[in-house]
């Protein structure tokens, strides 16, 4: 198993789900479902990054440090 195999698998999963969503009909009823699925799928990436102790340059914690008094 490669060192970052989980990252590649998660990325591929996200791409597949988003591709599937793009093929479905776009209407008002599906909009809520599309948004929820998109948020759920993409949150996997952030969960893995958090567990590994990595930080995005524009994360919530970074923005809090800027505005702390």
TrEMBL record:
InterPro entries: 23S_rRNA_IVS_sf (IPR036583). This is Uncharacterized protein. It comes from Candidatus Daviesbacteria bacterium GW2011_GWB1_36_5. Gene3D superfamilies: 23S rRNA-intervening sequence.
């Amino acid at each position: 198993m490669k060192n970052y195999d989980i990252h590649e698998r998660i990325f591929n999963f996200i791409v597949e789900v988003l591709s599937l969503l793009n093929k479905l009909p776009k209407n008002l009823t599906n909009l809520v479902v599309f948004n929820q699925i998109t948020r759920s799928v993409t949150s996997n990436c952030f969960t893995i990054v958090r567990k590994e102790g990595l930080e995005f340059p524009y994360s919530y914690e970074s923005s809090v440090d800027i505005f702390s008094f």
